[in-house]
Amino acid sequence: MLHFFTDPYKDELIYSAIARYHYYTGNVDFKDTLEELFGKRTIIPNFEIGSNIEALAKGLGGKYSSDYIINKHTIFPFYSAFLPKKRRQQILKGIKFKGKGLYTSLGVISGSICRKKHIYYCPICAKEEIAKYGEAYIHREHQLQGIFLCCKHGIRLIKYPISKKDVSRLQYIRLNMKLLKLETLKIKEVKYEEQLLKIARDAYYIITEDLSKFSKEDTWRCYKSLLYDRGLITPSGKVKQRELYEEFTHFYSSDVLSLLQSSVDYDNEYNWLKVITRNEARAVHPIRHLLLINFLEGDISKFFKGEKYEYKPFGKGPWPCLNIVSEHYKKEVITSLEITEDYKTKALVGTFTCSCGFVYSRKGPDKTEGDRYKAGRIKRFGEVWENSLKELITAKKYGLREIGRSMNCDPKTVVRYADKLGIKAFLNTKLKLPYSKKKHKNKKTITGEAYKKEVIDFIKDNKISTKQQIRNSLKKQYIWLYRHNKIWLQNNLPDSVPREKRNNKEGTKVDWDKRDAHYLKLLKNKRASMLNQVKPIRITKSSLGREIGILAALEKNIDKLPKTKEYLRQVTETVEEFQLRRCIQIIDNKIKEDENIKLWQLQRKAGIRTKAFNKLKKTLINYINTGGEKWGERKLQ
């Protein structure tokens, strides 16, 4: 057991502490130092993460545990929170003992960015340490890849003149005060200082906080929850990659992403942003995790301590049964919840199914605790409810409205279910059913004929439309006819174009002028439709083209469609323009409802980050105050 060791300073790399030990012992041969500390003369120093730490801890007589040294004096925690649990344990074992390929396992090699071949230090930190301890030491936070500034002083880190390649593999480098630049220091303004300093401080948080219970699996759950909050993931869990890419690249400047070697190529299916949000096994550098966390959450501590592991738009289960005649009415007994997306508004819809047969749904997310006890629509009453209805009706003691109140439904529903159960005769009422089977059949026929006419008219007006374009333009009509009159639909839709003809391999000449005019008409109609949607969608080439089924044609042949190209150039919205339109729509609705307009409420409802919202403030204030002259005295509060 060693009787003397240079205790590591706060955030000092264990490598640096060993270098100081060698200096103070006066050893000439580094192999002597290695034997004293590790019991072997063949240990190869590992600068950032160390190796054979368990042997070192034992040699120090239990003063420091191997876990303490690894967590407090290596850069391992920088990667730990983003590693799968199993791999993390394997790497920890490797660091403690004779691990090989540790950098590869960490992803330092395959996922490496902004690699540092030299030792870096902060001149102010060094100066303070010399004044306090009589020497400077190597900080682990200054050696992290992608970190350019000192998280404490906010100044650029300086490269130490002696690199690891300049010395023997067995040698440990100690900071020599004579080689440090201290007195002649001139602090220069660093470009993008604010964002780079934020990243440096977030990185320091990761290596100093105890995040041992956090793993890649937990990180992914947090990402998923925050992506839901931002509307960037569907109820089925699929990330809206295009929208994510557009918002992310608007949040960060291309220069910052380039500096951090984290630019995003949307067309590359394996770009790091897609990989990190698909929860793939590939290694993603911690800096890129920090970029995503800052974009989604902003507050690193809130991300790791906010317990935001799973998006729950309808709260935690089980959920209450809202069957008024059930023994467990309003008791939290429902465990079956299916979350879907409303076809028109894209709002989340939760469908709750109880064991008593009662099924109800409502749009989410829940905003108050009271929303938990609301049913937007009852999909099925179930056997328990129907049996109670039978008892009330056959008792012949209660009026129709009284039965409705007891069953929590309107009188028409009572009559309809009485007819369904064959007990309508027990009701002394002249109230007619909401519809008869005959009327329903007639209505179905009328609807079908109307939809057929719309399809035929569309085909006449758009003679070169494909099946996919018709389906995308007449979604409601197409789906209804597909379900109720599939044969008619198949007989009246245009024939499918063979792939070889679509690719024009048989020499079929395309009339691009005609197609240009046709696409232009489709795009104008679709844009008008999108502008009137309750939940706005950003107008882009992708959103327009995808809706009417011509996105591939627009991407491949846009230069052959000059009118279409020019129209898209005119109407395509930037992220800022779309945010402005979202805000204006909210303002218009508030004005119509005669509600006061407050900036903070507007920002929250529009879901826009403060930095982006500040750019819109002046325009929005002018819009509201101009509108105030038209709709009365309504100034911004």
What does this structure look like?
By secondary structure, the chain is mainly alpha-helical. It folds into six domains: 166 residues, no CATH class; 91 residues; 108 residues, no CATH class; 58 residues; 62 residues, no CATH class; 56 residues. Helix content is 50%, strand content 5%. It has 30 helices and eight strands. It has a four-stranded antiparallel sheet, with no helix packed on it. It has a two-stranded antiparallel sheet with strand order 1-2. Strands 3-4 form a two-stranded antiparallel ribbon. β5 and β6 form a beta hairpin. α28 runs parallel beside α30. The C terminus is likely disordered.
Short account of what is shown:
Helices cover 50% and strands 5% of the residues. The chain is mainly alpha-helical.
